[in-house]
Each structure stands twice: as structure tokens, then as C-alpha cells.
Amino acid sequence: MMNRGQQLVRKYGIVVLWSVLNAAVFIEKFMKFKYAAEYYYLHRMLGVWLCISRGSAAVINANLALIALPVSRGFITLVTNLAVDLSFQRVRLIFDHLTSIHLMAAKFLVGASIVHSAAHLMNALYFCKFYNFEYPSINACAYPNQDPLEMVLTCWPGVTGVVMALIMIIVVSSSFNSIREYCFEIFFFGHKLIPVFLLLILLHSSVSGVIMWQSNVNEHQPGCIMPSNDSFIATQWNVQTNFTAHRVAPLPSPHSICRSAPHFKRQAPETWLWLLLPLVLTLFDFIYRRVNAKSVELVDVLSYEGELVEIRMRTHALTVRPGQFILLRVPPVAFLEWHPFTVSKCPSALDSTLTVHVRVKGDWCIKLRKYFKECEESLDKSEHLVRIEGPFYSPLETINQFKLCYFVAGGVGFTPIAAFLHHFRDGEMEWNFCRLYVTWICPSVHHVRSFAALLDSVAARLWTMNKPDAFEFDIHITRITPSDEEWLLDLEKYSFVKSRVTISKPLWRTKLREMALRHPKSHIGLFCCGPDALSRNVKKCMKMSFKGNSTTFHFKQECF
Q1: Which of 110, 136, 262, 410 is spaced 20 to 30 A from 467 at the CA atom?
Q2: Are the CB atoms for 548 and 1 separated by under 8 Å?
Q3: pLDDT classification of 245: cutoffs 50, 70, 90
Q4: Dist CA 204 CA 142 (whole Å)
């Protein structure tokens, strides 16, 4: 097992590195607006809130530049395909954690946006409270003591900021798992507002900005004395007295004589530079997905008890690797929605059928099952239009890179390993595993029913190859009903499967400990596909059970 230091680096390394980079970006902008001469007069009006608003804006820009990369499926798939050809395994290892990176960038973005909004509200207050009569061009308020709320709602940055805040609330609130699983339309259409958000943030910083900087610092050093205006000294004193609460940098030349009046210009926009990468990636991903989108012929739809639907499609000239996933769209069900599903059977030379299994959970899946039930009487299933995009890269695609592999599946999460087993049974790949262990937790016996023949045939083939110990699997059924007992008796025809079915829940710590003792000083790929609670539990037991053990587990899980 990895030592404690290695575990901490793997778990928190990226978070710590990104936190340090964000802190560096924030501090750099903060110090610039606090001490740079060209922002002296603006800083005297707004104080530390100017520095906080600009520092948080830089953090927002940095996270916007990163947040689109993990969800650019087309770009990630192309890069990982190149990594396969050139054996750049470290590149693929980085991409295995992109979903976590996306969530991390989103959290930083939300936090920085809250700070930025609060700082700008304080800026609006000080703009109106400390109106600069000497240099009116630096003011953002229309007149002295203007209502700050009126100022925010009547200027372009304020209006766009309010709209962006509303969009962010919609996007964040629709991203929780409970919303995604049961009301996917809210999540789907909520994220369709992101292009609007990006457009607004460009306009927010580019059109009629409120940040002014002094363009003639050489001719008018901040704090200098205007010789032609006797009242200027008194005015300066009054202004300084009003701003004693705002600590500013020392004046460059406190007793110098001004050669001209200060000239102020609007701050040049920088956001577009940060948004260039996500915009290019988004455009590339859109083109890649549209080019690779295709209609497929519907071969058959099988409905199982226990809320499971198997969809079989026939594709032509489509290369899919086991572990990859596709996006599925059925226009009669939802014209615009694309849903990700791991491929459970890839097209092969013997059979061009592509298969996915759908757990009926959520509004779209319920409509899908209802639609296919209504179409069961149709003699020509090819009439029903189904569109797919992909295939796309998944961390579970790397299962066959490990000689020792342990796959944990929850319910329909068995589909990735099923694709590997199908590929082996059809002669599309060699058996490269020294040992492949599979633990499958099923909420219903009917999940087993959909893959029992596959498991039995693979075990039988390995037996004929004199590799009976190369594949070990156990199936745990967590719920059983009187109607299920009938089918359990029918397992007699699957000789390899019947002895491996138990009505129980697995003890993860015991299982992982036994595996570590069985393979000391070994590297084991630990893959998990299923509910988040299952992945968290397995990962927690993996960390708690092997302190001081020499076995190294490489944990990966399926994430869409």
C-alpha cells in the first residue's frame, strides 16, 4: 500500500497546487491595485474593496479558463487516443481525474464570484458616498450621494452582474445529484445557459467599465500640488481627511508640482484572454460531436423486471473500445437531450451490434421505457430514430492495463466490465489478466438475469484454456422477493454462476484485506462503477484497511 505521504499527495496535491495558484493570482492583482500609482485616486475613494474586487475577478478568470477542459469530451477523447498510440500513460492518468478538477474549478468560481459581488456592492457604496468633486471623470455615480442600488441597476456592469448571478444560482442548484437523477431536464437546460453566461461576462468587463486608471502619471504624479489652483491644497486636505479609513500607498512625491491635470481612462478588458481557451475548446467539442453524431438502427429493446432496459443498436464503421461511453438521444422522447451510457457490448467483427443498459430512474428514462413499450408491436424497429454521439473516453477504459484487477459494480454499473467480457468472448481481445476479480452488488435478481449467460460462457471458455483461476466473481443480491425465488431456481442451467450468487451485502474491508494478503507487493487496479455512495465506501475501506501493507491499489471510478 502507498505510504501516508503518497496518499495525501494523490488526494490533495491538485487541490493544494490550484489553491496556491489562485492565491498567487489574487495577491498579484490585490497588490497592483493597492500600490500602483495609476490607481491611486481610485483606491483613495474605494479603499481595500477595490483590491478585493479586482483580485477576485482574476480568480474568476483563472477558473473560467480551466473549467471547460474537463467537459470537452471530444478533445479529451482525441488526446487519450493519442496517449494510447504513444503509450503516454501519465496523460491518461491526469484525464482520469478531470471530473474532480471540473468540480474543484466550479467551487473556486462560485466562491470568488460571491466575494467579487460583495466587494462591488461596497464599491458602489463608496462611489456614491465619497464622490470626487475635483476629478468628476473618475466617478461611477451619476451624482453625489446617489443610491448605491440605483447605481448598480442602471449601469451596464451592474445589470450584467445581476443576470450572471441569477444564471450561476440556476446552474449550481441544478448540479446536485438529486436534481440530475430525477429531473435531468433542469440540469440539462440549466447548463445550456453557460454560453449566455460567457457572453455576459465578456460584455460585463468590456462595455462601459467603472474601473478608471490614470494615464499620465509622469505629468501628474499622484498627490502633487496644482500651482494654478490655490484651493487645491485645501481640497486635497479635505479629501485626505475623508479617507483616513482607507490606507493607501505612500505618495511618490508628496511635495512635487503637477505639470498637468490627471487624465483617466477606462480599464482595458482582460477577460477575453482568459476565455479564449474555454471558447475554443467548446467550439471544437461542438464540431467534433456534430461530425461524429450518427443515426443508428434499432435492433431490439428488452425490458427486465427491476427497472432495467437493454437497447440493442446496429452501427456501421464505428469503433468502440470496452469501457467507453456514448451519448444517446431519442427525439420522440426528448428532442434536445443527450444522455451518457456506458457501452455494455461493443461492435465486433462477428456482430456489429452496440448495446447499452439503462436503469429506469428519472423522468427521461421513464419516458424512454414507456416509448419503447408503445413501439413493441412495431414490426420494423428500424423505423424508430435513435441518435448517438461518441464514443468518448472513460477511466474504466484502462482496465486491461492491469495484470491484477478488481472490479466493483453496483447494479447497472456492471456494464463496463461486461463490454470487456463480450470482447474476450467474441475473440476481439486476448485475456491479459493474471487475475480478474469482480464483485457485483445487485438490487434485484433480474439484473443478474441480463448478464448470466455472458458470465457463464466466459468462465467456461477460461476453463477450457486451463485458466480456471484467472476469473473470479461473486454476486450479491441485496433484495429478494417471492417472485424472484422462481428465477433463482432457474440458475441451474448456468453452472458457473449459480454457485457464486449470495443473498447478502459484501464486507469491503474484509474483501480488500484478503486480496492484499493474497497479492503482497503487487499493484492492483481497483475500479468502481455504480452509485456514489458505493464508490465512497469502497474508497474509504481501501484507505482504512491497509496501513503498512505493501499492496498498492490504483482506484478509478466511472464519472460522467
Answers
A1: 410
A2: yes
A3: very low
A4: 19
Would you put residue 307 in left (φ > 0), alpha (ψ -120 to 50) or beta?
left
Q: Who's near 4: CB < 8 A, 6+ residues apart?
A: 547
Within 108-224, strands assigned E span 212-214
Helix/strand number for the chain, H first, E second: 20, 14
Q: Tell me: the pLDDT tens digits for 435-471?
A: 899 999 988 777 787 888 888 888 888 888 888 888 8
Instruction: Provide the whole-model pTM.
Output: 0.72
Q: How far is CA 120 from CA 48, 51, 290, 398, 403, in A?
A: 11, 10, 41, 47, 56
pLDDT digits (tens, 9 = 90+) for 367-425: 888 888 777 665 455 556 788 887 888 888 888 888 899 999 988 889 999 999 988 88
Beta-strand ranges (E) seen in 203-346 are 212-214, 264-266, 294-304, 308-314, 325-329, 339-345
DSSP assignment letter at 551: -
Place of cell 441518435: 387
**For residue 523, what is the DSSP state?**
E
User: Are 473 and 414 in contact, with CB atoms under 8 Å apart?
Assistant: no
Under 8 Å between Cβ of 312 and 403: no
Task: Report how far residue 60's alpha carbon sits from residue 520's, in angstroms, rounded to the nearest whole number.
Answer: 46
Contact call for residues 329 and 392 (beta carbons, < 8 A): no
Calculate the CA 39 to chain-centre distance: 37
Separation of alpha carbons 345 and 357, rounded Å = 9
39 vs 49: CA distance, rounded Å:
13
Contacts of 179 (CB under 8 A, 6+ apart): 173, 186, 187
Cβ atoms 374, 353 nearer than 8 A = no
Question: Phi/psi at 226 (nearest 5 deg)?
Answer: -85, 115
C-alpha cell at 212: 478608471
Bridge partners for 314 per DSSP? 297, 353
Q: Residue 215 is placed in which grid cell?
A: 494615464
Neighbours of 45 (CB within 10 A): 24
Q: Among candidates 429, 496, 444, which has minimal Cα distance to 468? A: 496
How many residues in total does the chain contain?
560
Burial class of residue 443, CB neighbours in 10 A (0-12, 13-18, 19+): middle
- Confidence band (pLDDT; 50, 70, 90) for 532? confident
**390 φ, ψ to 5°?**
125, -160
Residue 312 Cα distances to 239, 298, 299, 330, angstroms: 76, 6, 5, 14
CA distance 110 to 63: 10
Helix-helix angle 98-129:48-67, to 10 degrees: 150
Phi, psi of 138 (to 5 degrees): -85, -15
The answer to whether 248 touches 40, Cβ cutoff 8 Å, is yes
| The residue to which cell 501628474 is assigned | 220
